[in-house]
Design brief:
globular; alpha/beta; Oxidized Rhodanese, domain 1; two-stranded antiparallel ribbon; 142 residues; 5 helices
């Protein structure tokens, strides 16, 4: 599995429209927090117990149509998407990548979003999407 910086993931997605962007956060996160444009939500963990989705690989295959389609996975921090990517590889998917830092990026020692590098200010709405903002990826909000 490749691990991609958010800007590289954005480049790949814009240059290769066949690449499938799978957001493996929960449906609530996907709609409430927002998501990258054209991302497809396939939950890695499902509510109410947040157990691993036993149908994850099958659900992704339904969306991808084949196991050799390029897939980029994203979650909140980049941790669930690593586990999800390993699961896809175990099921025979051959072109799987993970977005480092995820949708919101890593938390600092106080469990807060780090300051945005470009402005030196904290994200005013608390969405924590600095990594995707740096990549200039459009974000849909509901």
């Amino acid at each position: 599995m490749d691990n991609l910086h958010p800007t590289k993931a954005y480049e790949i997605i814009t240059e290769s429209p066949n690449t499938l962007l799978i957001d493996c956060r929960t449906e609530v996160e996907f709609y409430y927090v927002g998501h990258p444009v054209d991302a497809i939500n396939v939950e890695w963990n499902t509510a109410p117990e947040f157990e691993v989705n036993p149908h994850f690989a099958d659900d992704v295959l339904r969306m991808a149509g084949r196991k050799d389609r390029p897939i980029i996975l994203i979650c909140r921090s980049g941790k669930r998407s690593v586990d999800a990517g390993l699961e896809l590889e175990q099921h025979g998917f051959t072109q799987v990548a993970n977005v480092l830092e995820g949708f919101e990026g890593e938390l600092d020692a106080e469990h807060q979003q780090p300051l945005a590098e470009s402005s030196g200010e904290a994200d005013p709405v608390g969405s924590g999407v600095q990594p995707l903002q740096a990549a200039q990826a459009p974000v849909e909000e509901r």
